[in-house]
Amino acid sequence: MKIVDLSNPLENTQYADPPGLGPRIDYMGHDQTADQMLQFFPGVTRDQLPGGEGWAVEQVTLSTHNGTHLDAPYHYHSTMDGGKRAITIDEVPLEWCYGRGVKLDFRHFADGHVVTGDEMAAAFDAIGHELAPGDIVLVNTAAGEVYGQPQYVGTGCGMGHDATVYLTERGVRVCGTDAWSWDAPFIHTAARVAETGDAGLIWEGHRAGMVRGYCHIEKLANLAALPARAGAVRWPCSGNDLYNVRLRSGVARNGAVLRKQQQTLGLCYFPI
């Protein structure tokens, strides 16, 4: 069995998010936390602890967009499915998050390119995959190769409104990207908005959730390690074709599970 980790952990790095939006992690080692532990055990002294040590723990300040995470429809807009109230992350059916996976290789698209519905259709034709309701579509962009580097946030293509609707109208409820956003990087979108005056270009892939509710995963990792052709690996499966693909998002050392209205960071297993 081959295990592929598709997540990026939370880290103190300035290159995984735009300026001012990254997490802050304060690490406390065993030699710093004995008193913290002893407050729960009156009368016990530090010299009674093994090596005088407490626990290793982290204090984390973050946005729900930090690390590999799943966006819920409520993040995109207050409505979905043509005007219904958008669901929050705690309302996302778990059935959406378990299904047959397919990877699309969009690394050849230029940074800032907005994938169209026709390009999305052509990508499935190229690998001989016919979408079915419940399929989970992961998009490998150029951003995955530069995660943690200064150019990461501005790298990779984005999914346009029509490309996203192409997926959702065929029953896709969860999709994902290794880029910072499902949409094209803002620096490129801002240039197009300035040129055309069309504010409808802003977040067009996300806003497609107003038409049909869906979730997407952002900041995925190691998509290049997944099989190139859809259907090469299925879940469940058996024998030599088994890939156990894990989506693990947490603090770099001890891990964390966080649930919010808009997004979730936590432990789940992704079927490919």
The count of β-strands is 16
Give me the number of helical elements.
Answer: 6
Order of helices and strands: EEHEEHEEEEHEEHEHHEEEEE
CATH architecture type of the largest domain: 3-Layer(bba) Sandwich
How would you describe the shape? elongated
Mean pLDDT, rounded to whole units? 87
Largest sheet: 7 strands, mixed
User: What's the multimeric state?
Assistant: single chain
Number of domains: 2
Strand content: 15-25%
Label this structure with key terms.
about 270 residues, alpha/beta, Glucose Oxidase, domain 1, 2 domains, 7-stranded mixed sheet, 3-stranded mixed sheet, 16 strands, about 15% helix, disordered C terminus
Structure explained in plain terms:
- The protein has 272 residues and is an alpha/beta fold.
- The protein has two domains: 2-9 and 67-270, Putative cyclase (Glucose Oxidase, domain 1); 24-60, no CATH class.
- The chain contains six helices and 16 strands.
- The protein has a seven-stranded mixed sheet.
- A hairpin with a 3-residue loop joins strand 14 and strand 15.
- Helix 3 crosses helix 4 (161-168).
